[in-house]
């Protein structure tokens, strides 16, 4: 949502004829331009971990989002 498109659509995998589904399953994606803060990129990385046990729960996402927003002020 932050990027206005799927981060998986721009991966080298899909550019070389691979599938978006495989990119998602393997967490192969690229962040767009550097216009986004490192905090936001880190949050997105944490939510897109392959192993669901490694992903933050909703409370951790909210806390991380608050930290990212505070760092921008």
UniProtKB/TrEMBL annotation:
Under which EC number(s) is this enzyme classified? 2.7.11.1
Q: Does the keyword Nucleotide-binding apply?
A: yes
Enzymatic class: transferase
Secretion signal, residue range per the UniProt entry? none
Q: Which organism is it from?
A: Paxillus involutus ATCC 200175
Q: What's in the keyword line of the UniProt record?
A: ATP-binding, Kinase, Nucleotide-binding, Serine/threonine-protein kinase, Transferase
Q: What is the lineage of its organism?
A: Eukaryota, Fungi, Dikarya, Basidiomycota, Agaricomycotina
Q: Which InterPro entries match?
A: Kinase-like_dom_sf, Ser/Thr-specific_kinases
Q: Which SUPFAM superfamilies match?
A: Protein kinase-like (PK-like)
Q: What is this protein called?
A: non-specific serine/threonine protein kinase
Q: Which domain of life is it from?
A: Eukaryota
């Amino acid at each position: 949502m932050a990027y206005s498109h799927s981060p998986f659509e721009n991966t080298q995998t899909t550019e070389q004829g691979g599938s978006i589904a495989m990119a998602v399953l393997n967490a192969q994606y690229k962040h767009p331009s550097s216009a986004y803060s490192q905090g936001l990129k880190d949050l997105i990385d944490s939510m897109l971990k392959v192993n669901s046990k490694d992903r933050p729960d909703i409370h951790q996402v909210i806390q991380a989002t608050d930290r990212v927003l505070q760092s921008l002020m």
